């Protein structure tokens, strides 16, 4: 009767897989396990692929996995074993204290971590502990894990604080603090008069960052459209000061162009507005964007393609959106007088626009030679520091343009 009772309460045998590329270590572990009545070695492997295969076939209770073995290492083996034998509990084996490896193995699903050279009774104890649903870490690595996790948590906290600070700065801009607008004349190169003014956002912040950086930052914080609309609203305040016949050109990403809020902001001044769609960012839905631009056109707003020739789709972008105005990017304008390839590209873009009935504006004109070459190519409108620098409307309106040949 006593013998039967003892047999009934005997601990179930723990089936173990050992995976390590060192034959001597596998043999030593097999020897240790052979002396334990409640532990059975059911398989051995020399690399990650073998370990996954054996685990899938044998479905062991516990797998001792070398973190540095061939075939992708312990993390690959641990993940594969979890897929093919989900009930197997993984203990990582490392020849040295390696904090990044500890965390990598724990992320891969390991519930134990032992340093090679650990005493035999501690190894067996760890196997029993994890087989019963617990976890087991060598004393040698506990401090390292705590330090690494603490550092990681601190890093994440600092990133959250930095993100919050950047979001606060953008919210400050949204409320009109630190956001101002400069305006650069767009010149009729035939009559030498101002055809329009491009509104350019300026941000006051410490450290100083350019407008493109702040708009990109706002996109990552899901505040991109809000910041663009804030800049547009501020730009519109100068409309009463513009001379008769001059338009106001505002910059807009394709995402903001598709926002229902944009038309509401622009509707009252629609006949005086040009919306410039940047070409620096890929458009993922031309049909949706075209539909949004059609709604703007229905209210008398003209559309320009900004930075044409510099971005993702070039002439295709211009063709699909059928703008009223094409702005030749500064990358084509710069040194166009001395660069045969740029002249050829600009000439093709100008011919395309002329054929489609679109006006051409050359951006970034900075020298007399560039201006002369662009005129010879048939460019009607220009913009750049050689013609007029950005400034306040109060200083620009009524001021004479510099005398240029």
How does this structure look, described?
This protein has 405 residues and is an alpha/beta fold. The chain has two domains: 146 residues, 3-Layer(aba) Sandwich (Rossmann fold); 221 residues, Alpha-Beta Barrel (TIM Barrel). It is built from 17 helices and 14 strands. Helix 3 packs parallel to helix 4, helix 7 runs parallel beside helix 9 and helix 9 runs parallel beside helix 11. The chain is elongated, with a radius of gyration of 34 Å. About 1% of the residues have low confidence.
Quick summary:
By secondary structure, this protein is α/β, with parallel strands linked by helices. It has 17 helices and 14 strands. Residues 4-9 have low confidence and may be disordered.
